UniProtKB/TrEMBL annotation:
Pfam families: SPP1_portal
Name this protein carries in UniProt: Phage portal protein
Ranges where the record places region Disordered: 183-207
Lineage start: unclassified sequences, metagenomes, ecological metagenomes
Organism for this UniProt entry: bioreactor metagenome
Compositional bias annotation for Polar residues: 188-207
């Protein structure tokens, strides 16, 4: 901590002819104080209480700047927080994540466009517009409730299969999963069972 200079007493006056002044042939400078005066540096004592107070302020400022809830750093008990409260706590982090996702998506697409141009010069045709970028925010979620809600909506006929797969936390490639489901439905027999083995030698399908 930076010390503060403190002067106690009055400075001696210097006459018109230089009475009372320090001789100019002396090296350095000095203070001319009255009798009983003093000069010193005052500084605060940095004990563990002071350090703890400064550390808490800096830590909270870091959490505020990074939009990180305090519960993630064990500052509060998370056992009495509901999922809705956790979503509200991570609201600012979600907004920041969406902004970062936009910038990262634009930057990656620009890089892919450069790759497409370089490959085109070599005679390799590539369409980068067919590439789909998926960003997943690492936010605490109750995946069991999400699956139950999707199942309820699907049973009601209020949501399509593709939308169900898009909201499914366990599915990352929706197009590939749709193709697998179509292939699986095509391999079913009339009884609704899935054919697991094809007898290619006899042309019969075994169940």
């Amino acid at each position: 901590m930076n010390p503060i200079p403190v002067v106690v007493g009055q400075k001696l006056g210097i006459g018109k002819n230089g009475e009372g002044a320090i001789p100019s042939n002396l090296v350095g400078t000095g203070l001319q104080l009255d009798d009983g005066g003093s000069f010193g540096f005052a500084n605060g004592q940095l004990d563990y209480k002071s350090f703890e107070s400064v550390w808490k302020v800096l830590k909270q400022a870091l959490l505020d700047i990074s939009c990180t809830p305090a519960v993630s750093m064990n500052n509060t008990d998370i056992s009495n927080l509901s999922e809705t409260s956790i979503k509200l706590l991570f609201g600012l982090a979600d907004v920041r994540g969406n902004l970062n996702e936009k910038f990262m998506r634009d930057g990656i697409m620009q890089r892919l466009k450069k790759f497409e141009k370089l490959l085109g010069i070599k005679g390799i045709g590539v369409d980068v517009d067919e590439i789909e970028l998926t960003f997943i925010c690492s936010r605490p979620l109750n995946e069991a409730d999400i699956i139950d809600n999707l199942k309820t909506l699907r049973d009601m006929g209020a949501i399509s299969l593709q939308s169900t797969l898009e909201q499914n936390p366990y599915v990352f490639d929706v197009a590939s999963e749709m193709d697998k489901i179509k292939a699986e439905k095509g391999s079913m027999d009339n009884t609704g069972n899935v054919n697991t083995q094809d007898d290619t030698s006899s042309g019969n399908v075994a169940k």
